[in-house]
Amino acid sequence: MHFSIQSKGRLWLLDNPWIMGILNMTPDSFFERSRQKNIDELLKNAEKMLSQGAHILDIGGYSTRPKANEVSLQEELQRVIPAIEAVRSKFPECLISIDTFRSEVAQKAVECGADIINDISGGSLDEKMFDTVASLQVPYILMHSRGTPQTMSQMCHYENILLEILHFFEQKIKKLRILGVKDIIADVGFGFAKNIDQNFFLLKNLSYFQILQVPLLVGISRKSMIYKTLSISPYEALNGTTALNMFALTQGANILRVHDVKEAKETILLYQKLLES
Asked: Considering the entire predicted model, what is its pTM?
């Protein structure tokens, strides 16, 4: 299934799988190598990701790993706004997403150069988020989660996880459409209020969510579902990430959110070769 997204007067076709590169302006993200210590390091890694095939650069200033420390609004703004401005200045043509669940951060980020809003709470942690997205008219990544980063690990009980997450998406997408939001991307939220077995079950049944008829984003890069299953560290989880990203592509993933762009690009090229043959 082919899709397109539009932002700030530009149109892109998602006729092949895309790559979103992770750039964290945080000191406590679970994978240390994704943390950008300063703007110079950020720009260096942004250039590397773009040269390796990233379609989107995802910039965040609030670690959303389980039990992460809370970050004030002002601190989050101080982390992400200079970063977005610097990337937009040096790479004027690239697509930038702001990884935030706060509408005020999303608003300021888009005003200073971001093209996409990536909300891990699906609008659940800020009641103004949906109205903000609608007023900005930019693509919105709608992720399923429960609770907050501090509480989500205790919120993993589902009677029927596929139906409950599908219902979540249907309700949220309906509300967004009524508000006039045109471009919505769905993310089932691996690791967010889901245990390891639930993560694998969701990945195995990812194609179930194609019924939504929106692009599907998969973010499993180096996550605990991989490194805990293999009894290794996040640093050793690239091979497992590649294996599961390939499976995600076979199940309809349209965008892979990753720390390692080169390997994701190779995975996509091999997947496409399989389809061609």
From this structure: 0.95
